[in-house]
Amino acid sequence: MAFRLIKEKGPENEDVKVSFWIKILGSGFGTGYFPIASGTFGSFLALLIYLIPLFSSWIYLTSSIIFFFLVGLYVSEKMRRRYGEDPYIVTIDEIVGQWLTYLVGSVVFEIFFKYKPFDLDFQFATKAAFGVVGFFVFRFFDIIKLEPAKYFDNKDSGLGIMMDDVISGVYAGIVAAVITHLVWFRFLGKLLY
Questions:
Q1: Is 22 domain-assigned?
Q2: How far apart are CA 39 and CA 149, in angstroms?
Q3: Which of 11, 12, 29, 31 is nearest to 20 (CA)?
Q4: What are the two backbone dihedrals, phi and then psi, of residue 115, each rounded to the nearest 5 degrees?
Q5: How many domains does the chain have?
Q6: How many Cα neighbours within 13 Å face the side chain of 182?
Q7: What is the pLDDT of residues 101-160, one digit of tens each?
Q8: Which 8-state DSSP code applies to residue 31?
Q9: Could you tell me if residue 15 is inside a domain?
Q10: What is the pLDDT of residues 76-94, one digit of tens each?
């Protein structure tokens, strides 16, 4: 698979039947049906869900990542068989990767920046700043696919579809935490508070 910003629609295998629920889940609740940048819309939906009060708590975020990763393995494999190799319509992987960005970033904050007042559930402006930074950083890593993300992206399987975004989410979480710390706490946060 070559580097690409927009995935092209491949030929459909009409012999493989895909249920309505597999299409809804696999397409990231319909975001995969956007004709351009469907992965970006999937990531944006993940950002909006992340901004819901208390969703960023460890228990909700971690359990959502695990649940949707496991569901994603199954549905992305089914969708791949119907729509071809890494189909543009599958965006559940972007949702999981985006949420993993936020989880990893939160861990980085807890370990390395624990003396900063970064309480994601109570300071919405800080949470929103981290959410937006994490969104753009994840999109960057999801597009460039650093190893081993590129390795998994080249695998024609549901696991490959999911794992390249998981790995990109780990990279993005680390970088997003550092950027948010430097930009928000060193500059913008002081101006706003």
A1: no
A2: 16
A3: 29
A4: -90, 5
A5: 1
A6: 7
A7: 999 998 888 887 754 544 554 477 778 888 999 999 999 999 988 898 788 777 878 888
A8: G
A9: no
A10: 998 888 877 778 889 999 9
